[in-house]
Structures are given as structure tokens and as C-alpha cells.
Amino acid sequence: MGKLTNKQQQFYDTLITYVRKHFRWPTYKELAGRLGFSSENSITQYYNALVSKQFLKKDSQGNYTFTNPTDVWMTRDEEQGSRSIPILGEITAGTMEEAIEADLGHITIGDFFPNASNVFGLRVKGDSMKDLGISTGDKVILSKTELRDGEVGAVLYDGNTTLKRAHMRSDGVRLEPANPDHDDIIIEPGEFEEVRVLGKYLGHISEDGLVKASYN
To answer: Which residues are catalytic?
Structure first.
């Protein structure tokens, strides 16, 4: 990964700030307005530079993604802070024994999520998944893996994103909310090519702490 120039860093930080706030990529016009560019051609040059230096990735359809999603969903303060839980000793799960204090290392995010390199988070807005305990302001944890029938995931469709349980059917896909006040979203076979799975739901973080998904 190459080192960014000051202007390239400003461009990258602008992307991060925008995606955090709006949960979508800015248009070229929006970027030009924010950065004071007179020509949208400059934006293409910056995108190419960030791809070349491996800060962004570009797929065959011309869509950009962040090479390291934690740049987006984790602040610099969080990056510099503690990411682990200390293991302070041993305790028996059998007969009563004296606790043994020792420095036995740390529990890290990798212990919670073994494939942490493919994991990212999104902040929730709305109550369509409230029966799973997911509320506005919670952070859902998602994995960039295949979404199978009956699993919950983040889906991009027709330019909009949603968190729903996906039911794969012969006549399309049914996206089911976990709230009876919301209707299912039905996607017909001809429209399925427009659907993009952003990530599979692994759990969420609320005021009560971490809740992991359960797929029985």
C-alpha cells in the first residue's frame, strides 16, 4: 500500500466522511462540490491514484470499495485505543479451587470473529429488525460472505440498502423484516441481477453489549 499525498489523503478522508454519514458513495458532482474541483475529470484521477496505491478496489462494473473497511467504520481514536480484553488468570469450572492470577494474553476481535479481515460494521437506522433486538443506533457486524436462504444480511437493491432476512425462492427473493409493521420486499427473477449482497449478519452491538447471530 503506497503513501498518499496530502491532497490524496484529503480526497480519501472526504470519501470516508461521506460514506459514514450517508451509507453510500458520493456522486462525482457531490465530490467536486465538497473538494472545490472545477472539473469532474480530477475526481477520476484521484480515484485511479487510490486504486493504484491499494486504498480502494474497483470491480468489473466500475464500482469502488474500500480495501480496508475498518478505515471507514472505525475512528482514528478507536484505532489507537485498546482492541483487546486482558486474560488475567485461570478459574476452574470443576471443583472449587483458588483462582490463579497470571498474564495469559488477550482476547482479540479475531477470537470473536475468526475471519475478521472480511468483517465490517454498519450503523442501523430504522426499526424493521426490532424483533431481533436490533434498534436505531446499534452497530451490525457483517461478513463479506455468501448469503444463504434464511440468513440475515445487508442488501443493496435499486440504489437502496436494507437489512433483512433473505428467502431464496424459485420465483425470486423475499426480503423479510423482523417487525410485523413492515412489509416483505419481493424481488422478481428479472430484477435479481440488480441485487448485491453487502454482507451477512454476524451480530450487533447495542447498549447492552455484543449479541451474536444464531442460525439454527
So the answer is: 128, 164
